[in-house]
Amino acid sequence: MAGEIARFYGKDAELSEEPSASALSKVISKKAREAGLTKSIVKEISDLKGEPDWMREFRIRSFEIFEKKPMPSWGPDLSGLDFGSIVGFVRPKGSEQQPNSWEEVPAEIKETFERLGIPEAERKFLAGVGAQYDSEVLYKSIRKSISELGVIFTDMDSAVKEYPEIVKPHFMTKCVPPNDNKFAALHGAFWSGGSFVYVPKGVKVQQPLQIYFMMNYPGFGQFEHTLIIAEEGSQVHYIEGCSAPHYTKNSLHSAVVEIFAHKNSRVRYTSIQNWSKNVYNLNTKRALVHEGAVMEWVSGTLGSGTTMLYPCSVLLGKGARAEHLSIALAGKGQVKDTGAKILHMAPSTCSKVVSKSICKEGGAVRYRGMLFVGPQCEGAKANVRCDSLIADSSSIAETLPTIEVKGGAATIGHEASVGRISEEQLFYLMSRGIDSEEAVSMIVRGFIEPIVKELPLEYAVEMNRLIEMEMEGSVG
Predict the structure, then answer these.
(1) Which of 7, 49, 315, 410 has the fewest Cβ atoms surrounding its Cβ within 10 A?
(2) Of 34, 198, 78, which is closest to residue 128 (Cα–Cα)?
(3) Residue 159 φ/ψ, nearest 5 degrees
(4) Angle formed by the axes of helices 436-452 and 457-471, to 10°?
(5) Is pLDDT at 424 greater than 70 in this prediction?
């Protein structure tokens, strides 16, 4: 996997022109490719998928909420996002029957995912692996030893039909309802693909579950939905990787992640995002964390032109804990408006946020966080640390925290630092015979080390390589 992902996830695959209609027809079916996000397309998507009535009605209701909800009046500029030009659903040709084995995946799509290392990933004994191309999951596999324990790892479309008794009570009801925000409502109407993970009581999945998301269609909107349910005393680690080639048309990625961490469970959600710079990355991710449970978010946000991402942990039960670790990098023309939301709603809850950001060539990074401690939450502890590294005078780094404490006897800490790449450190390293590019890389690696060390080895290697590639030419 090492090397292959770096080559694929590296610098944007710039295309001099949009692919021709004949080229696209080789991998994309004609149905549901109409531009514009309309109610008629919502109904067509549901019909195309053969969904139950409750999901069709949910989609329509969500679209009606989307039409009424205003655009966010805060955060980065979204004026360049034209809903009328977004294609809401793209079904890759050959995906009408989901393949049962890697050999059955269409050749054109298989070639793309081979570059991502999916077959090799299986050979590395992951508990399960999946792959989504545009709107649909085209490949999934779960180890027999895991499925025999009652673990379910499948695509979301299949889960709606095969496990309605589990999905229906959880799907955008208590965690991320469609009226949460405009993009959650849009997602509720157009969602397609994504992952469903169910871990039974007391089951500990030792190897990570993994999925790749690929956007390959110009002007596309990808709306994958991830639903993870960890029952009492269970444990699971879910990893996702994201990428897209660069087209001249803007694309939209608006995912929703819902996580239910029940009593004494432990969930880790790791995401490495390297969308191309023409993508608006606007997501809603939230976990409901019950008594004694632990929720861990680990994220690397490297690509996309504009990102709004604030994973949220709602600590509902006594002794619940949350840890948010993130890296964001913004280069020329990029805005990363990211952060974390922690809601302490029970006593003796604990949270920790470590946010690292890097900006260069006029890029903008912004930590936007919210920390809330409700009444009768005695013994709550929270600590937030935000560090930004600025490579030049034209870049921007900001920290915008909101802290609200309703109850007494809570321990709250917030630290923030912003600094330039130290000329003294560069001079010291270069005086030891290290060239300027490697010296910058060493400083950056040391800066992000607290986050990278939490990644699985192959992802840590790739993260360092990707950041080194992005930082090339950043001296001065």
Answers:
(1) 7
(2) 198
(3) -65, -35
(4) 140
(5) yes
